[in-house]
Amino acid sequence: MTGYTFPNPLPCAKPFAAAKGQGRDTMKIVGFEANNGLRLGVVEGDAVIDLQAADAATPSDLGEALRASNGDLKALADLARRAPASARRLLAGLKFGFPVAKPGKIICLGLNYLDHVKEGPSRDNIPKFPSIFFRVLTSMVPHLQPIIRPRVSTQLDYEAEMVAIVGKPAKHLTLANAIACIAGYSCSNEGSVREFQRHTTQWGMGKNFDRTGGFGPWMVSADELPPGGKGLKIMSRLNGNIMQSDNTSNMMFPLAETLVYLTKGMTLEPGDIILTGTPSGVGHARKPEPVWMKPGDTIEIEVEGIGVLSNPIEDEKA
Questions:
Q1: Pairing mode, if any, of strands 273-275 and 106-110?
Q2: Which terminus in the chain has less CB density within 10 A, N or C?
Q3: 152 exposure class (CB count in 10 Å sphere: 0-12, 13-18, 19+)
Q4: What is the pLDDT of residues 18-44, one digit of tens each?
Q5: What is the domain extent for residue 172?
Q6: Is 108 within 8 Å of 207 (Cβ atoms)?
Q7: Looking only at Cα atoms, what is the longest distance across the chain?
Q8: How far is it, in rounded angstroms, from Cα 6 to Cα 211?
Q9: Please, which residues have CB within 8 angstroms of residue 171's CB and are 6 or more apart in sequence?
Q10: Which class for 126: exposed (0-12), middle (13-18), buried (19 or more C-beta within 10 A)?
Q11: What is the per-residue pLDDT across 163-200, written as a single tens digit (0 to 9) for each?
Q12: Percent of the chain that is helix, strand, coil (3-state, to 5)
């Protein structure tokens, strides 16, 4: 295990070197809570431009904004550019919400990195197709909010994942046009209660305990990253120790192929999110003993060019 000392859990912790294609500041769209409600903002340096303060008619949910614009982020970018100084607030101390407040679907891929397949119970049954399952929103928390270890199990595991956010409706995609439906990318800790995940062949229970996963800190627009989010470094750090370290180029089913597969059967809609699978190094596979997230821990997920998602771990209250 490699030690890494990070200065603080804020999303502005120094990221990996800039991804290919990033010659200018990225457009980062963030959900947050203020004035007794959800709001939408654009991150600019150490500040957030409050889009509702610039125009009260702006949706507070990125999914709603994407539906209204068919995935075009230009209107939000233009609004941020002309926002008055009074619309700015400091990023430090912001109470983060989800990048998409109410995603219609949370679609997850399992077993999408070969080394991760080999460290688990499917090592002798390499998947031939994407392994698809779903999460509910109550199983997730935003950036800096506590992930909760449930009363009934200590086996709370971490999983670093890149998230793709759908910008416009899509059905029957092809490899040539698939990634055009993606508005941007985020990070997730696709936390799993392994004991309950293994109870049956269906993973849903172990993946959907309340507040066991993280999503955030923001969405980075797709045009700021390599096509399909390919070639990005991805890692998890538990209390500063690197637990997972890989590259999104090593996905068994890259994003374009996954989108083609999904849209054979379902329509993707603006605001849907897709968790693209985790690399090897998860807690259940650690030797000589598994490593589980526990109260007092801090888990960080970093994806190159996107940012750092950080969550403390707490016990479920009585």
A1: parallel
A2: C
A3: exposed
A4: 444 443 446 999 999 999 999 999 999
A5: 100-315
A6: yes
A7: 59
A8: 24
A9: 263, 266, 267, 268
A10: exposed
A11: 999 999 999 999 999 999 999 999 999 999 999 999 99
A12: 20, 35, 45
Residue 208 domain-assigned? yes
- 34 in a structural domain: no
**Which distant-in-sequence residues (6+ apart) come within 8 Å of 187 by Cβ?**
160, 161, 162, 163, 214, 215, 216, 217, 301, 302, 303, 306, 307, 308, 309
Q: What is the mean pLDDT of residues 64-90?
A: 96
Extract the tokens encoding 238.
């538990």
- Residue 199 within any structural domain of the chain: yes
Question: Between the CA of residue 60 and those of 253, 297, 317, what are the distances in Å?
Answer: 33, 32, 30
For the CA atoms of 64, 65, 67, 72, what is the dihedral angle to 10 degrees? -160
Q: CA-CA distance, 87 to 49, in Å (whole number)? A: 6
> What CATH number does residue 208 fall under?
3.90.850.10
The owner of tokens 């849903």 is: 204
User: Rounded to an integer, what distance in angstroms lies between the CA atom of residue 119 and that of residue 218?
Assistant: 31
Q: What count of other Cβ atoms lies within 10 Å of the Cβ of residue 164?
A: 26
Q: Of 63-77, 120-134, 230-244, 262-276, which gets the smallest average pLDDT?
A: 120-134
- The DSSP bridge partners found for residue 134 are 107
For residue 90, the one-letter residue type is L
pLDDT digits (tens, 9 = 90+) for 128-173: 999 999 999 999 999 999 999 999 999 999 999 999 999 999 999 9
Is residue 225 one of the residues assigned to a domain? yes
Task: Give a three-class secondary structure readout of 29-80.
Answer: EEEEEECCEEEEEEEECCEEEEHHHHCCCCCCCHHHHHHHHCCCCHHHHHHH
pTM: 0.91
What mean pLDDT, rounded, does the chain reach?
A: 92
Any idea what the Cα angle at residue 302 is, between residues 234 and 62, rounded to 5°? 110
Q: Is the omega angle on the peptide bond into residue 217 within 30 degrees of 0, that is, cis?
A: yes
Domains held by the chain: number? 1
